[in-house]
Amino acid sequence: MKTKLKPFLNLFLFAFLCTSTSTLISAQDTNKYDPEANLKALGITIPEASNPVANYVNAVRVGNLVFLAGKGPKKADGAYITGKLGADLTVEQGYEAARVAGINQLAVLKAELGNLNKVKRLVKVLGMVNATQDFTNQPEVINGYSDLMVEVFGERGKHARAAVGMGSLPRGIAVEVEMIVEVFEE
Questions:
Q1: pLDDT the model gives residue 158
Q2: Which fold has domain 35-183?
Q3: What is the model's pLDDT at position 185?
Q4: CA triplet 25, 26, 31: central angle to 5 degrees?
Q5: Nearest by Cα to 100 from 77, 121, 84
Q6: pTM over 0.85
Q7: Distance (Å, whole) CA 67 – CA 60
Q8: What pLDDT sits at residue 37?
Q9: In angstroms, what CA-CA distances link 13 with 16, 18, 27?
Q10: Are 176 and 71 contacting, i.e. CB atoms less than 8 angstroms apart?
């Protein structure tokens, strides 16, 4: 009878150790995860979240998902980065505009959650680029946003994404980006 139970005990012990190791790894990953500290290390100061410019709200939370309205590249001085990619702005300038839009999204997210460490992972990003008809480097422009999110959130900042060109954007802004974020259960 002892020989018949031994394979089951070994299997049980193996499953227990795998589960414990997985839990330990997850706990260690959580201990290293600190978007707020990453922002400080990057020298990024999150501004006050700007108010919506029309009849909408900045964020809507449904369960453990937060849907963020589109934000543009509003600089610290209150001016927007405007212009069309492919005519007025270079890819590098568009990249910077997308990064500024990302900082503005982080301001909204922090205002909604109180602390960016509550973000479990970024889910989806829609990046819109104000571009000429023949401009085709939308992904390189929106990388300014995506790269920032990975710098702040690490692997959890990697997201599904669309980067598309638009004939125009509100007030002539260079980019507008919206995002869906998963947060930890409270």
A1: 97
A2: 60s Ribosomal Protein L30; Chain: A; (3.30.1330)
A3: 87
A4: 95
A5: 77
A6: no
A7: 5
A8: 96
A9: 5, 9, 21
A10: yes
Q: Please state, in angstroms and as integers, the Cα–Cα distance from residue 125 to each residue in 60, 128, 167, 184, following that order.
A: 15, 10, 19, 19
Bridge partners (DSSP) of residue 163 are 127
Name the residue with tokens 């997308």.
98
Alpha carbons 15 and 180: distance in angstroms, whole number = 35
Low-confidence winner among 6-10, 141-145, 165-169 (lowest mean pLDDT)? 6-10
Beta strands in 51-148 (DSSP E): 59-62, 65-71, 119-130
Q: Is the pLDDT of residue 18 over 60?
A: no
**What are 63-91's pLDDT values in tens digits?**
999 999 999 999 999 999 999 999 999 99
Q: Which residues sit opposite 164 in a β-bridge?
A: 128
CA 133, 135, 139, 143 torsion: positive or negative?
negative
The answer to whether the beta carbons of residues 152 and 172 sit under 8 Å apart is no
**Rounded Cα–Cα distance for residues 82 and 137 (Å):** 17
Give me the residues paired with residue 65 across strands.
62, 182
The pair of structure tokens assigned to 184 is 């930890």
Tell me if 112 sits within 8 A of 59, measured CB to CB.
Answer: yes
- For the chain, domain boundaries: 1-32, 35-183
For the beta sheet containing 119-130, the strands, ordered from the edge strand earlier in sequence to the opposite edge, are: 59-62, 65-71, 175-183, 119-130, 160-166
